[in-house]
Amino acid sequence: MEPTASGAQVTLKDVAAASGVSISTASRALDDRGNASGSAAAIHVRKVAEELGYRRNSFASNLRRGDTRTLGVLVPRLSDTVMALMFEALERAAAARGYFAMVATSGDDPEDERRAAETLLDRNVDGLILATARLDDELPRYFRERNVAHALVLRTDGVSPSALGDDEVGGYLAVRHLIDLGHRDIAVLTGPSFTSTGIARLAGARRALDEAAIETPAEWLVAAGYGIENGFSAGHEVLEGGIGRRPSAVFAANDNLAMGVIAAAHHLGIEVGEELALVGYNDIPLSSRLSTPLSSVRVPLDQIAGNAIDLIVNPGKEPQIRKSMPTLIPRASSGAPRHSMPQVR
């Protein structure tokens, strides 16, 4: 609240007295949680409040009601573009529903994750949204047992309320695209095996390969982290031809991995889009701005964010695990149909 000319802060009681109404009537007129009342009395109260310089203490008001209209968001790191974009989408979705979102980072360590979650809970948040869940993560189970309102986003443990893209469909779309272009020598770089995203995208890729009766060497199925450096190492591993030949195409389970593969290919003198087809995942903004624009699987982050918020603020509605459909965005990196491409050296 802002001070009056005498230095005192204007209270709700002051507004009620100046408006000639009860404190409860003034409180209802100034409650900004829903549609503002259009009654003459409410309009008069708001006009008086504005003239007096009154500002409602929404935090204290919410505490009296037992909620703070605040949600905590836990991500591994904000240096990861997808996590930063996810948080921004959650901020927008929360604001549209009258909530405020605050973020904490935890890395991939379970103990750091628990400490960060406790820090957010100490701020009296109404619920937690976790973008950190591992398949072996105990934190969602801990929340379920203690009835802590929470939702998992982008990842799922298969039990807690979750909002994510359909990663198996996404992996399928990526590899099916490469097969439809005529490729049969396809490597797949997956995410970490402790994440639902890594497992589901690999499952989708395998389904597409199985449908086409393609047997992929085990050396071309590489589990890695989700960083550019992981893509660079894994890219070298599959492109150096350790089994006597190299793949003509690569599906990388996120765009950072794909950019690492681009760097590895450049280092080995292999031209992406001509000699090597490449598809990434997530379609981060940089993907379309690369010198060879990256084909990628786009994930509807705003829809996922809205689902995650709704799982907390409107609990009990089915389904508790909500998957949004991804879309393949083909660009130059996946190249021309295989029959018109130069032969792989």
UniProtKB/TrEMBL annotation:
A Pfam family this chain is assigned to: Peripla_BP_3
PROSITE patterns: HTH_LACI_1 (PS00356), HTH_LACI_2 (PS50932)
The HTH lacI-type domain, residue ranges: 10-65
SUPFAM superfamilies noted in UniProt: lambda repressor-like DNA-binding domains (SSF47413), Periplasmic binding protein-like I (SSF53822)
Protein name: LacI family transcriptional regulator
Species the sequence originates in: Paeniglutamicibacter psychrophenolicus
SMART domains in the cross-refs: HTH_LACI (SM00354)
UniProt-listed InterPro entries: HTH_LacI (IPR000843), LacI/GalR-like_sensor (IPR046335), Lambda_DNA-bd_dom_sf (IPR010982), Peripla_BP_I (IPR028082)
Domain of life: Bacteria
Keyword Transferase (UniProt): no
Sorted UniProt keywords: DNA-binding, Transcription, Transcription regulation
